[in-house]
Design the sequence.
């Protein structure tokens, strides 16, 4: 990915906020599932702490049971309003008290395998490019099934790494299909990885931006930012991280965890 000019290296104070809620229709109480010996929220918290650039992690939740779980393993948690309409709003609510932070990173609570280096990349993009208000990640798509899956959000970005559009549809859409497109170098298609870093002041005013027409069509909140004329930088990572949304997702995570030699969640 090409760099946006000017490229600066500045030091910032960054915090990670993990929005976590109990309500989940496809996998009830998923934040507290603990077949590995640790709750899912603890796995995500510990993964987030592997970031070398963030100076703290906090779970934002409106559920007392999740709050107590985080406190039980020594983590930091904050109670948020049950009326918060989205995870972004919960993150912003906690960020208001983080007056010493320049950058806030939103790591989803069901991302137990998020890499610390991925978090660091999102932070570095904002440190290096002061004109951007947000950063996020993408990873190459090498499967046509994945490309055509509406649950897999796609992103296209320009030569400077600035997001041009996010969609549930295949983008770019080939006029004539060729399987070689899935093997191309550089990649033709990218999956959006749902990790966001925000400048704190922008995050606090994000909710005041009016919902965009395209946001309503695609049900993708990041389109509100692009519609407002703001810059979202996209960093590329080789390996995607997959959220835990279904019982099958969780079972695969448990089996992988045990296969790595951690039968008791060590």
Sequence:
């Amino acid at each position: 990915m090409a760099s946006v000019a000017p490229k600066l290296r500045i030091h910032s104070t960054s915090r990670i906020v993990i929005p976590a809620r109990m309500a989940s229709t496809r996998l009830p109480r998923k934040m507290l599932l603990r077949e590995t010996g640790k709750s899912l929220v603890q796995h995500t918290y510990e993964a987030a702490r592997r970031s070398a650039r963030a100076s703290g992690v906090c779970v934002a939740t409106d559920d007392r049971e999740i709050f107590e779980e985080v406190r039980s393993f020594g983590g930091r948690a904050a109670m948020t309003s049950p009326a918060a309409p989205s995870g972004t709003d919960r993150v912003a609510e906690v960020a208001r008290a983080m007056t010493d932070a320049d950058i806030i990173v939103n790591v989803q609570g069901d991302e137990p395998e998020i890499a610390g280096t991925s978090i660091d990349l999102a932070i570095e993009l904002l440190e290096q490019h002061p004109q951007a208000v947000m950063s996020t990640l993408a990873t190459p798509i090498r499967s046509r099934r994945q490309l055509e899956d509406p649950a897999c959000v796609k992103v296209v970005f320009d030569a400077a790494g600035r997001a041009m559009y996010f969609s549930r549809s295949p983008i770019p859409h080939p006029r004539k299909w060729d399987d070689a497109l899935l093997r191309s170098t550089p990649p033709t298609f990218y999956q959006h990885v749902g990790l966001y870093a925000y400048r704190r002041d922008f995050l606090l005013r994000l909710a005041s931006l009016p919902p965009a027409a395209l946001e309503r069509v695609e049900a993708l909140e990041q389109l509100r930012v692009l519609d407002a004329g703001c810059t979202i930088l996209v960093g590329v990572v080789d390996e995607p991280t997959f959220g835990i949304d279904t019982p099958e997702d969780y079972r695969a995570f448990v089996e992988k965890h045990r296969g790595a030699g951690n039968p008791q969640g060590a």
About this structure: The domain at 12-114 is CATH 3.90.550.10 (Spore Coat Polysaccharide Biosynthesis Protein SpsA; Chain A). Residues 116-128 form the longest helix (13 residues). Confidence is low (pLDDT under 50) at residues 1-9. The CA atoms of residues 68 and 207 lie 28 Å apart.
